[in-house]
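Journal club prep — side note

Before the paper discussion, L.F. wants everyone to see what a predicted structure for a comparable chain looks like in C-alpha cell form. Sequence:
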Amino acid sequence: MSGKRVNILKNRAKAFLDLARELIERGQLDLASFSAEQASQLRVKATLLRLLGEIPRIHSIRELLGLLAKKLEEMGYSSEADAVSSFVRENRGVIINIESAYTESGYGLFNVREKDVREMLRVIEKFFKLLEVIENAVLG
C-alpha cells in the first residue's frame, strides 16, 4: 500500500494527539477528548491501511481494533492479534470514554475531568506504540 497515505494518517494522528495535549493546558477538556479520539481513529486506520490496503468506514475504536485483531489472526499473526485483544480488554473503560468523545464533545455535551482526559492520552500513547510494534512484526 502507498506509504504516502499511511504517513499522512499517522502524521494527522500525531497532530491530533499533540492538539489534545495543548487543549488540556487551555482547559478545553471536551475538545481535548475529541482530538484524542480523532488521533486514535486515524492511527488505527493507518495500520489497517498499511496491512490491508484499505481504510474501513468504521468510526468505533473498539470495532476498528476488533477488525485489526481478526485480520491479524487470519494472516497468521496470532500473538499480535492476542496483543490487540488484550489491550482492548485491559483498557475497555478508557476506550469507551474515548469513543464517547467522538459524538458527545463535538456537540458540547461531554463533561469530562482533566484526570480522565490525561488517562485517555496515556492509553492512546500505549496504543500508538502497540500499533508500531504490530506493523514492524508483520511488515518489518
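L.F.'s comment for the group: The radius of gyration is 15 Å. Keep this in mind when we get to the figures.
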